[in-house]
Design goal:
Layout: H1 17-34, H2 37-42, H3 56-69, E1 74-86, E2 89-99, E3 113-124, E4 127-137
Antiparallel strand pairs: 1-2, 2-3, 3-4
Length: about 140
């Protein structure tokens, strides 16, 4: 479930790098909920590669598959940690709940799939891009 990867982009004005990474994640969540594959594609670096053998094209196709599979998509992200390895390189760890329908109660009470994401982001040309993502399904919320 790589909507974390999909976690969206952008350096935002005068924000510090940690706030920019948080903004990237928030933008990615919004793009996923809008079902905007083009916006998600724009958040992924051209040299993206992950431990599952996915490149950018494979990840975009996976996102497209998930979007087509669900008429509605709700994403709840809880950022656990952001580690700034340099001014242009960051790692983010987050938990996410992904629901294929509208949710009226708290995210932890909903019927959803829960994942843990490890993201690596690089800033280039004023934009943060996803260069690597690893994820696993959580047994406990």
């Amino acid at each position: 479930m790589l909507f974390a990867l999909v976690v969206a982009a952008g350096c935002q004005g005068d924000a510090n790098p940690e706030d920019q990474v948080r903004g990237f994640i928030a933008d990615a969540v919004e793009a996923a909920e809008r079902r905007d594959v083009g916006a998600l594609r724009g958040l992924i670096a051209s040299d993206y590669a992950d431990g599952r053998g996915n490149d950018k094209a494979a990840l975009v196709n996976y996102c497209r598959f998930l979007i087509l599979q669900h008429q509605t998509l709700r994403v709840f992200a809880d950022v656990e940690q952001i580690e700034l390895l340099s001014p242009v390189w960051a790692r983010a760890t987050l938990r996410a709940a992904l629901a294929g329908r509208e949710v009226e109660q708290a995210w932890w009470q909903t019927q959803a799939d829960f994942y843990r994401f490890e993201l690596e982001l690089i800033a280039a040309d004023g934009q943060w891009r996803l260069v690597r993502a690893d994820w696993s399904r959580l047994a406990n919320r």
